[in-house]
């Protein structure tokens, strides 16, 4: 089934070759289609506008191998990452492979199906939506995922079904002898008037290099609500290239909160596409990076119909030599009137060597819309530091408190209590760890 | 308690000299008012004493309880008992009043060898202080100064002063932006907090505040120097005659300008 390669082969193309020749799969059609796409899509480079600021050398200069050749070590002690609310609503994937032993799916009530995608390959909903929702132009990573994945998270809610507990989708990455690539996949279909909270967690157990390419497709049908928390706690040497896309139908709500903490190189491309009127969606983000981390968010909020409310608060704290990139595209199509869209990108630069590229990008073709946007890059305000110092706090403590306060706003709306607390702890840990470096006021 | 000796201060960024040799002695139990036109250096004086990094002492000294505090950071000065009520209190979104004050109170307590209070004890302690400035308890859980009206911010400064119990309180235009009722509340609070062991410095443009807080001494600052000191009647004279006669005086002597 291999097609002749029409583009210069990259490490992803090389890895794909071996898989393509191995016929064992439940996703034969999807694989064929993905391979075709892969073979005609080039690996991105800096000359392409969308990749201008992102250094891809951590990918191109690593000799990645396929998972089964990587000599992966077993996952130990992962229970510590289970959230108590999802005691009976948890899916666990280790290096992309479903683990029934750690998973628990009994506690969601009527009308909610949760499980491994490959166990549901014949389901009508899976047949109808899987890979039909992804929409990333000239993208190599989506077809790569399509070719490689076998297992994945599947969440389906019938009409009117309310998940009784948040669903935790836990992606664990283990240590290995060689750097490997893994491709988590998720499909969420919330039928009319249904309601679910999803906590998607990516955790690296060690400090090894690996690359994860998660693709998730979310369909929010009429009147349905989804609250989606995504936490990226990868290895500090990992590469994380994510494509989460959501489609929102009439009267639906989709609220996503992405927290980026780990990874050497993160490229996150959340997209929300409006499919009808009267929707409300959120694509908030919090990025806390230091050392030589690079975190890149390229988002799209596509307003295609009238009467939408959308919200994007993207907050970033950069220390050390870290580099943050933000490109937030907001489209308002010609007939999409009465849109109320808020976008703000605030960057706090704690070091002199940190780097921030911020690019809000509004393309508005309707005339009766309210779009506010802003991007700021700043250091801690010396006047605020002095104020807290004059109240007895040391300079370090004052900076810690202010950094913490800056970051906290984005996670206020995370409504799963233990996750909210966990994120507060993560923010605290970051601010505490990053207080060594003095900022010249 | 506080002695300023020939204090010269300049703005670090551009080297503009603002204080040009201030001499001032403040003793325990006293209330001093420092008055003067805009730009005369009143606020700079308060900031220099509390250690604002933007202001650099180029000559002279600041003695607090007999020892120079020039080398001390602002937090160390706060620990020693210095408190500055800001002219423009800073908003700190995300940090509640309680969080800030408990942190401050306990840091100061630890440095003075007093016992720290746990959250419950601290809660009891600050609730008492709320009455002093007639504020509601929900005020405690709001982010510091965030979205506060001008008057609320000023009251919050005095509330913080009540909680932290400084020995030297520098109140920088605490009266500005207050209506007459709020002014009375704030003045009342300050009077109650003031005792034989602490000193208060009121920096103000107007005599109005001094109707409610009676100073032992009034100083007039012009051009970075104290050009005249007197008792509370001096403030009345200023109210009546303005600063012109003093400015002329200062110029004639060739000192201040």
Overall shape of chain A: globular
Radius of gyration of chain B in whole Å, from Cα?
18 Å
Quaternary assembly: heterodimer
Note the gap between the termini of chain A: 62 Å
The CATH topology label of chain B is: Rossmann fold
**SSE order of chain A in H/E notation?**
HHHEEEHHEEEEEEEEEEEEEEEEEEEHHH
**What name goes with the CATH superfamily of chain B?**
P-loop containing nucleotide triphosphate hydrolases
Number of strands of chain A: 22
Distance between the termini of chain B: 29 Å
Total beta-strand segments of chain B: 12
Low-confidence stretches of chain B: 252-257
Q: Which regions of chain A contain 5 or more consecutive residues with pLDDT less than 50?
A: 436-441
Largest sheet of chain B: 6 strands, mixed
Report the portion of residues of chain A in β strands.
35-45%
Count every helix of chain B, treating DSSP H or I runs of 4 or more residues as helices: 8
| Structure class of chain B | alpha/beta
Number of domains of chain B: 1
Outline the structure in words.
The complex is a heterodimer of chains A (441) and B (257). Chain A contains 8 helices and 22 strands. In chain A, helix 7 runs antiparallel to helix 8. Chain A has 441 residues and is an alpha/beta fold. In chain A, 51% of the residues are buried. In chain A, strand 1 and strand 2 form a beta hairpin. The C terminus of chain A is likely disordered. Chain A is globular, with a radius of gyration of 21 Å. In chain A, the strands form 2 sheets. In chain A, strands 3, 4, 6, 7, 9, 10, 12, 14, 15, 17, 19 and 21 form a 12-stranded mixed β-sheet that branches. In chain A, strands 2-1-5-8-11-13-16-18-20-22 form a 10-stranded mixed β-sheet, covered by helices on one side. Chain A has a domain of 259 residues. Chain A is 18% helix and 36% strand. Chain B is α/β, with parallel strands linked by helices. Chain B has one domain: P-loop containing nucleotide triphosphate hydrolases (Rossmann fold). Helix content of chain B is 36%, strand content 27%. Chain B contains 8 helices and 12 strands. Chain B has a 6-stranded mixed β-sheet with strand order 6-9-10-3-11-12, with helices on both faces. The longest helix of chain B has 15 residues. Chain B starts with a strand and ends in a 5-residue tail after the last helix. The interface between A and B is medium-sized, with 24 and 31 residues.
């Amino acid at each position: 089934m291999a097609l002749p390669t029409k583009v210069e082969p990259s490490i992803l193309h090389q890895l794909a070759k071996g898989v393509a020749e191995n016929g064992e799969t439940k996703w034969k059609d999807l694989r064929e289609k993905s391979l075709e796409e892969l073979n005609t899509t080039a690996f991105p480079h800096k000359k392409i506008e969308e990749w201008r600021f992102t250094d891809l050398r951590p990918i191109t200069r690593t000799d990645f191998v396929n998972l089964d050749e990587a000599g992966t070590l077993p996952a130990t002690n992962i229970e510590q990452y289970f959230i108590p609310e999802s005691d009976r609503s948890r899916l666990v994937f280790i290096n992309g492979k479903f683990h029934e032993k750690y998973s628990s799916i009994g506690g969601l009530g009527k009308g909610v199906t949760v499980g491994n995608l490959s166990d549901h390959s014949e389901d009508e909903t899976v047949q109808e939506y899987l890979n039909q929702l992804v929409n990333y132009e000239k993208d190599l990573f989506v077809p790569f995922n399509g070719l490689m994945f076998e297992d994945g998270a599947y969440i389906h809610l019938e009409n009117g079904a309310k998940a009784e507990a948040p669903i935790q989708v836990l992606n664990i990455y283990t240590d290995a002898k060689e750097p490997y690539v893994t491709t988590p996949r998720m499909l969420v279909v919330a039928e009319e008037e249904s309601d679910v909270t999803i906590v998607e967690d990516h955790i690296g157990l060690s400090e090894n290099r690996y690359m994860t390419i998660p693709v998730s497709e979310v369909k929010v049908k009429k009147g349905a609500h989804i609250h989606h928390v995504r936490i990226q706690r990868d290895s500090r040497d990992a590469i994380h290239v994510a494509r989460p896309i959501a489609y929102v139908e009439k009267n639906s709500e989709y609220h996503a909160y992405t927290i980026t903490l780990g990874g050497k190189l993160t490229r996150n491309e959340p997209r929300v596409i409006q499919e009808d009127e009267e929707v409300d969606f959120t694509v908030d983000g919090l990025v806390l990076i230091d050392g030589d981390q690079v975190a890149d968010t390229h988002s799209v909020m596509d307003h295609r119909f009238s009467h939408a409310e959308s919200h994007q608060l993207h907050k970033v704290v950069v220390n050390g030599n870290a580099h943050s990139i933000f490109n937030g595209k907001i489209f308002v199509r010609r007939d999409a009137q009465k849109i109320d869209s808020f976008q703000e990108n605030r960057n706090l630069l704690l070091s002199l060597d940190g780097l921030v590229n911020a690019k809000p990008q509004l393309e508005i073709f309707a005339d009766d819309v309210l779009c506010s946007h802003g991007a700021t890059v700043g250091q801690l305000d010396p006047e605020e530091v002095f104020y807290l110092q004059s109240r007895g706090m040391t300079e370090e403590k004052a900076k810690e408190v202010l950094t913490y306060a800056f970051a906290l706003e984005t996670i206020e709306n995370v409504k799963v209590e233990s996750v909210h607390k966990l994120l507060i702890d993560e923010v605290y840990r970051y601010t505490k760890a990053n207080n060594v470096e003095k900022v010249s006021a | 308690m506080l002695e300023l000796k020939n204090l010269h201060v300049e703005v670090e960024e551009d080297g503009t000299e603002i204080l040009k040799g201030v001499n001032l002695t403040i003793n325990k139990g006293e209330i001093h008012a420092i008055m003067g036109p805009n730009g005369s250096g009143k606020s700079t004086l308060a900031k220099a004493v509390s250690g604002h990094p933007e202001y650099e002492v180029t000559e002279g000294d600041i003695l607090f309880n007999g020892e120079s505090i020039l080398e001390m950071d602002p937090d160390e000065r706060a620990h020693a008992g210095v408190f500055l009520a800001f002219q423009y209190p800073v908003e700190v979104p995300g940090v509640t009043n309680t969080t800030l004050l408990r942190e401050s109170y306990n840091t100061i307590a630890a440095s003075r060898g007093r016992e720290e209070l746990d959250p419950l004890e601290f809660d009891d302690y600050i609730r008492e202080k709320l009455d002093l400035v007639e504020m509601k308890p929900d005020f405690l859980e709001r982010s510091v100064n965030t979205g506060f009206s001008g008057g609320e911010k000023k009251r919050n400064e005095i509330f913080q002063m009540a909680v932290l119990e400084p020995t030297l309180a520098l109140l920088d235009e605490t009266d500005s932006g207050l209506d007459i009722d709020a002014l009375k509340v704030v003045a009342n609070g300050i009077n109650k907090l003031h005792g034989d062991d602490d000193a208060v410095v009121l920096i103000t443009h107007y005599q109005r505040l001094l109707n409610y807080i009676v100073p032992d001494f009034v100083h007039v600052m012009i051009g970075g120097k104290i050009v005249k000191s007197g008792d509370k009647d001096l403030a009345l004279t200023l109210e009546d005659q303005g600063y012109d006669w003093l400015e002329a005086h200062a110029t004639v002597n060739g000192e201040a300008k």
